[in-house]
Amino acid sequence: MPHKIIRNERLNSNVCRLEIEAIDISEKALPGQFIILRVDEQGERIPLTLLRTCQKAKTVEIIVQEVGTTTLKLCALRSGDEIKDMIGPLGVPTEIENYGRAICIGGGVGIAEIFPVARALKDAGNEVVSIIGARNKDFLILEREMRDVSNQLHITTDDGSHGRRGFVSDVLRELLAWGKIDIVFAVGPIPMMKVISDVTRPAKIKTIVSLNSIMVDGTGMCGSCRVTVGDKVKFVCVDGPDFDAHLVDFTELSKRQARFLENEKVSLEKYKGEHKPCHQN
Amino acid sequence: MPPKLERQAMPAQDARKRRKNFNEVALGYTEELALAEAKRCLGCKNSKCRQGCPVDIDIKVFIEVIRKKDYAGALRIIKEKNNLPAICGRVCPQETQCEEYCILSKKDKPVAIGRLERFVADWVIDKKIKEEIPQAVIKKNKKVAVIGSGPAGLTCAADLSKLGYAVTVFEGLHASGGVLRYGIPEFRLPKHILDIEVDFIQKLGVNIALNIVVGKTKTVEDLRQEGFEAFFVGTGAGLPYFLEIPGENLNGVYSANEFLTRVNLMKAYKFPEYDTPVVIGNKACVIGAGNVAMDSARAALRLGAEEVTIVYRRSVKEMPARIEEIEHAKEEGIKFHLLTAPLRILGDKFGRVKALICIKNKLGEPDASGRRRPVPIAGSEFELLSETVICAIGQGPNPLLLSTLPDLKLNKRGNVVVDHNLMTSIPGVFAGGDIVTGAATVIEAMGAGKHAAEKIDSYLKNKQFP
Ligand SMILES: Cc1cc2nc3c(=O)[nH]c(=O)nc-3n(C[C@H](O)[C@H](O)[C@H](O)COP(=O)(O)OP(=O)(O)OC[C@H]3O[C@@H](n4cnc5c(N)ncnc54)[C@H](O)[C@@H]3O)c2cc1C
Ligand SMILES: Cc1cc2nc3c(=O)[nH]c(=O)nc-3n(C[C@H](O)[C@H](O)[C@H](O)COP(=O)(O)OP(=O)(O)OC[C@H]3O[C@@H](n4cnc5c(N)ncnc54)[C@H](O)[C@@H]3O)c2cc1C
Ligand code: SF4
Ligand code: FES
């Protein structure tokens, strides 16, 4: 059954926020879960985190960063357009309880993935301290939303154009020196999650990361998404996407992200050749 | 004595040509060939072939009707028992089923029952002959949910629909057919054939709901609330096994499921017209020697690999694939390293596969399965250069749905336990196909679907079995 796009709002030069009709999924989704969608008949199946769901309107919201063919196709859609397929909610929901003082870290488009977690932690009674970061001011998304669900919000940009100059991990290090932390949740680029994990390991602070491995079915059927966690091979789509950061083999994960690099370039060139960009400012 | 009639060979695409395309390999009998083959049937009074058919097709009679050139009539006879004849005619291992029982196989080659089955099904499709759609005599006001649209689920749904039930098939993927869609490649089972047979099942009144992962999108409990009174679980053997050897997460190592799903379901063989990629390189190794391995090897060849090698730890006798597939693979130039076991996979600094290290085996004493156990020969290690390694060593039951049903009894391999009525430990929940038996065959899955439909009917009539 096709799914109608209700709204597509551009947040910056390469990130969009879409609201999509999804009757069944909107009733079931929990924080930390994701969907897999396929835009059109030729399309690839790609995973995207559920930002929020609206049970009344029977819609889901996602935030998409344009990195290749599928994400470009998605961001080019307008309200009233349809996407062909969507399944979900997939993955194990994030374990939400009252931990005490919880740090929520989002880097780049990872802010979209940490938002539902931060909100749920706040609702569960945690003291939520959030750290969000991006390349520069324009790429920092969801600042207002994150402020609403955090007791404290720290902002970093690589160039200092907003918040403080530096990385989210710099703030984390200071917070660590400063007071008790019960748990850390972090989502973002792999190098960021690895640094966070290295920062919290000596202090033995439980740290949960949400992994973005390359998926096909999203139901445990293919093993495309496999990662090494501790001494075990796990499937991110069904065993995760949340894992104990201190056990994740980030080096392997980042190598596996490059499995189809050459093909992705070919696909993107083809797509760009066929489509003029629709949102030029 | 009448002259001996030779078994008619199956026309096929030339091996040198077909190894570069995804078009169907076996081209099907012409009318002349079909008639000549049908003539070989002795029309035995006490025909044995039917006993070898898991869905009990009246083989002797359909062959008789072919001889009268009433091909649509022959198809009707088959369809009394089998809703997917164009598929079964292509993929069933007839050599161990109906054809094994054929009396002719004692002294000569058996009647080519599968090829005849395919011939009549294709005839009706090609000639666009309008088929009568059997309609249920009395509609029963009861809803049945079938989970999984593989051959087991489709068959169960079709039979229940013929009995008048309102049946919905829930499928997690974006297309129906199970392994027929994502596993078996186009060159062996064209997807338009699958579409036509699925379409027929929908015309029987079956509703197919795609993109619903039961256990995630909806639970069995949700479905009960929606008024479904009985369930058939036909979720297949979808969990890929890996070798658990070093190097298995290197780039270039695929489970056969991933490789074939990319190629078949996502049509990566048409990349970049289709967006999903698959990378194959010049040399590929496939581990295993079942149908899944043959399909993977032959698909790899067609994607442009120059050399594709099957690595199998036992000997030629134990290879589980259909004979025809092994022969086709050999004709296409697939290499076979038998009595060879993989030890580890080597990678380069980018994490890509470079080579597969193997060891030679010899056959030792019989193991639990009665087959002689492969024993490694010390010092016989060797390196196979390879950029791709595809693991086709088997699949198990996917726990995704099962784990949401704590009362569901599983055996130690994780397969669903059923009683002789195919009912699970949860009343009203039935199961069949690969999820119960472990990876088996299309027709066995269909047999189970059929059997379950009968039992679901008795269950819904009086909540008990005769
Ligand atoms: C559980 C999960 C949740 C995700 N949530 C979001 C989200 O909320 N918003 C968002 O914008 N993205 C999210 N992603 C990443 C998103 O799926 C990828 O960016 C997308 O698949 C890229 O597809 P493409 O065709 O546009 O690009 P491609 O051409 O396929 O790839 C372009 C580049 O993106 C990277 N990439 C490819 N596939 C993936 C992948 N599956 N995951 C991560 N990187 C990939 C590769 O480095 C590649 O070089 C999530 C991924 C996972 C696994
Ligand atoms: C590559 C390959 C080649 C083969 N070749 C042959 C051959 O030549 N001849 C032969 O006889 N047999 C062959 N087999 C075996 C045969 O295909 C299987 O035995 C048969 O398909 C099993 O049927 P099934 O209905 O039990 O399950 P499947 O065909 O596996 O179908 C199960 C379906 O259930 C869906 N599903 C799973 N979980 C859920 C859920 N939670 N919610 C909704 N849907 C769900 C899956 O997506 C799938 O579509 C082959 C198998 C493979 C993999
Ligand atoms: S056993 Fe063989 S010869 Fe006899 S009816 Fe069946 S197919 Fe014909
Ligand atoms: S995406 Fe296929 S198993 Fe996870």
Q: By helix and strand content of chain A, what is the structural category?
A: alpha/beta
Largest binding interface between chains: A-B, 43 and 40 residues
The tally of helices of chain B reads 17
Which spans of chain A have pLDDT < 50 for at least 5 consecutive residues? none
Query: What sort of overall outline of chain A do the alpha carbons produce when their principal axes are compared?
Result: globular
**Shape annotation of chain B:** globular
Word description of this protein:
The complex is a heterodimer of chains A (281) and B (466). Chain A contains 9 helices and 17 strands. Chain A has 281 residues and is α/β, with parallel strands linked by helices. Chain A folds into 2 domains: 88 residues, Elongation Factor Tu (Ef-tu), domain 3; 110 residues, Rossmann fold, CATH 3.40.50. A 7-stranded mixed beta sheet of chain A has the order 12-11-10-9-13-14-17, with helices on both faces. In chain A, helix 5 runs parallel beside helix 6. The two termini of chain A are 34 Å apart. Chain B is globular, with a radius of gyration of 23 Å. In chain B, 33% of the residues lie in helices and 17% in strands. With 466 residues, chain B is an alpha/beta fold. In chain B, helix 3 runs antiparallel to helix 4, helix 4 packs across helix 7 and helix 5 runs antiparallel to helix 7. In chain B, strands 3-2-1-4-16 form a 5-stranded parallel beta sheet. Chains A and B meet through helix 1, strand 8, strand 15, helix 8 and helix 9 of A and strand 5 and helix 12 of B. Bound molecules: flavin-adenine dinucleotide (FAD) (2 copies), iron/sulfur cluster (SF4) and FE2/S2 (inorganic) cluster (FES).
